[in-house]
Structure formats: C-alpha cells, structure tokens
Design goal:
By secondary structure, the protein is an alpha+beta fold. It contains 13 helices and 9 strands.
Length: about 375
C-alpha cells in the first residue's frame, strides 16, 4: 500500500484555506444529475449506496490485499459469497430485468464467481514493482484541485508507469468511452504532475476475459486464422465451443462424442473442463482495455474538469430549483420517446427519497390507470 501521508497533509492544508477539492465521481454526478449533486454535496446527504458499488468496493479491497501479499486469490470467492449473503439479509437487491426476473443478478454473480475462482493476480515484489490505492492530488491550469485513489500502477523497466483501474461493471459502449475515460486520464495527469512518465492507462474489466487462439472462423473455412476475442465470463463455454467443435470435426472426431465432451464446458465455463491438448491452444487472460493517452485526450479531460467546476460554482446554492434532475426519458434513434429510469431507480444514492423520481412514478401510475380505465369503454 502507498504512503499517502504527504498528499493528505497537502489536502488538509487546502481545506484549512477553504479551497474546494473535487473528485471525478463528483464531477460525473454534477453532469449526470444536478438534483443528486445538490443532495449529496450541498445538503450533505449520503443516501443509500447501490449494490454494485458495495460489491465492487469489497472486491477492490481484496484485490489490493492480494497484490500486496496480504491475501490469496482463493479468498476472493469467500469475500464475494459473504458479501452477497449480507446484502440479501439487508434486503439490498440487484435490479430486476424488464420481465421482473433475476437475470441481471444471476448474470453478474456468474461472471464474478468465474473471476473469483480463476483470477491469477500480479504480486508486488522486487521484480514486479506495483503500487495500490495511491492517493493523488491534481491541480488544473485553472487552479482547480482533483483528488482520488489509483487502484493499481506498475513501474515498467523503461522508467515509465502503466496505470490500471479495476471495473466490476459491464464494458463501456463506444459512445460512453470518452466520458468514463476522464477518471483514467486524471490518474495519468496527476502522476505526470509528480514527474512520472505514463506509458499507458487501462481498465481491467473483471467480468470479461481476452482469448487468443488459432481456429476456423466458419464451418466452411479451410485454414485456421489467429482469432482474438473479448468474452463475458459466463459465455466463455458457449463462445469457444463453436470453434473447438469445428476444429475437432475437421480432425475427424465423432460429432456425438464432441457434443458430450463440450457439454460440461458450456455449462461451467472453466477451461479446466477441456482436454489438455485443446486447452493449451487457448490463451485466456484478464480483459485489459487500454485507452489512448494523448495530448488531445488529456486536454479534453482538463476541459471537462475546469468547465464542470466553473459551471457548478456559478449556481446559486440557495436556490434548489436551479438544480434540475436527470431526465427519466430519452429519445431513440427513430425519434421515439421511451422511459430511461435505470440509473434513477437502481444506482442513484437518493433513489428512495428523491421527489423527482416519486413524481415521475406517480404520473406513470396515473397514466397507466387512466389507460386501463379507458379500455373498459
């Protein structure tokens, strides 16, 4: 674990001078929902954390201990199961899917169970210099301050560093990459301000694996080609089985025997359930997704920080009406207006007390009742 004492002293010094210090998560909240930002940062209400944040925090803590040789990989599954039991007891639940079923819960647990049982963590030692949970303080050109913690960074042999951020969420869409990358880029800016040269920044998406192998892309392919795929852990068996089946069929193995052999693998998703002569040809690694660290991406991040803070400080903090809520509707590509309440109902810390959410749900219930009443005539 990093020695954060000097930066903590600097942060305390700034606070004693009433100089505001922000975080990227705070800026994201401001841009996402001003009403939520008002409740959190002006009214100082903590609300109720969401299940993903709680579980993600526990996994992060255990990974930090593993890197620093204070825990072992086999402890991950116990941590996951114990936390799930506790959250069930507290009635803190996963969101339901659109049918009101538990497919979201079941899918997340399947992915993370696979991760906890198969992950091989890097270790901090004399040959592999790793740093975890390091506190940073970054000062922008407009003299705004950002603080936070870096999950993990590695000292490379060429004198540079590589920065990593663990994620227990789904992978980001192309449209969302830039906004989520501000956190990674800020890490890099902070370390550069300290005099480091940053080689790369990346997310480690724990629910996924990167797989590289030589295989037949289609049933009609005559030659193998190098294939690289990022696969959700719960789909590893079903995704790889089609390539393994093609390979074995071309080798002349019986189709029924192949199906029997692959049946278990498709259910468990564990590479150990494959025969060694097959398993050895598949390179399965944690999913590491790099984001470009360039002058352009760094400038966009700096602009995001300074503009967001400038806008936030322009609001009248005594006028709640200025702090408009996140829209609970959105327009599709075809122009249709649809409900967009997943964040508000499942992720917002103030979801149980927000008057805007309750107002939206009341109007929705009233409209449904009116529509049902109208159908009677």
């Amino acid at each position: 674990m990093a020695d954060n004492s000097k930066i903590k002293e600097k942060i305390e010094e700034l606070r004693n001078k009433d100089i505001p210090i922000y975080s990227i998560s705070r800026l994201d909240t401001i841009n996402g929902c001003l009403a939520e930002a008002y409740k959190t940062y002006i009214e100082k209400k903590t609300g109720t954390n969401n299940i993903y944040a709680i579980l993600g925090s526990k996994i992060h803590d255990k990974l930090e201990k593993i890197v620093n040789n204070e825990a072992r990989e086999k402890d991950l599954i116990n941590t996951l199961n114990e936390e799930l039991e506790m959250l069930d007891a507290m009635n803190i639940q996963f969101p339901k899917d659109f049918k009101g079923e538990d497919s979201i819960r079941d899918g997340w647990i399947a992915d993370m169970t696979h991760f906890c049982k198969t992950y091989k963590s890097p270790r901090n030692d004399s040959n592999n210099k790793l740093h975890t949970e390091e506190l940073f303080l970054y000062k922008t050109p407009e003299n705004n301050y950002i603080q936070g913690y870096i999950d993990l960074y590695k000292e490379n042999k060429d004198g540079t560093i590589s920065i990593f951020d663990y994620k227990t969420s789904s992978m980001y869409s192309k449209a969302d990459l830039e906004s989520h990358a501000n956190q990674l880029i800020t890490y890099a800016l902070a370390k550069e301000q300290q005099g480091y040269k940053v080689k790369s920044v990346a997310w480690i998406f724990l629910k996924y694996v990167d797989v590289t192998f030589e295989g037949y892309k289609t049933d009609k392919s005559k030659t193998k080609t190098l294939i690289k795929k990022t696969i959700e852990r719960k789909k590893l068996g079903s995704e790889l089985s089609k390539y393994i089946r093609r390979d074995l069929l071309k080798k002349g193995e019986d189709e029924i025997d192949i199906d029997l052999f692959l049946n278990k693998f498709e259910k468990t998703n564990y590479m150990e359930d494959l025969r060694y002569e097959i398993r050895k040809d598949y390179k399965v690694l944690p999913c590491v997704f790099q984001y470009p660290i360039t002058d352009e991406t760094k400038q966009k991040c700096v602009d995001y920080i300074d503009i967001t803070i400038r806008n936030w400080e322009s609001y009248d903090k005594n006028n709640y009406k200025e702090f408009i809520p996140k829209s609970m509707e959105k327009y599709t590509a075809s122009g249709k207006c649809v409900e967009d309440t997943f964040y508000c109902l499942n992720l917002c810390n103030h979801r149980k007390t927000c008057e805007y959410i309750q107002e939206y749900l009341d109007k929705k219930e009233l409209k449904e009742a009116e529509d049902e009443f109208g159908d009677l005539f």
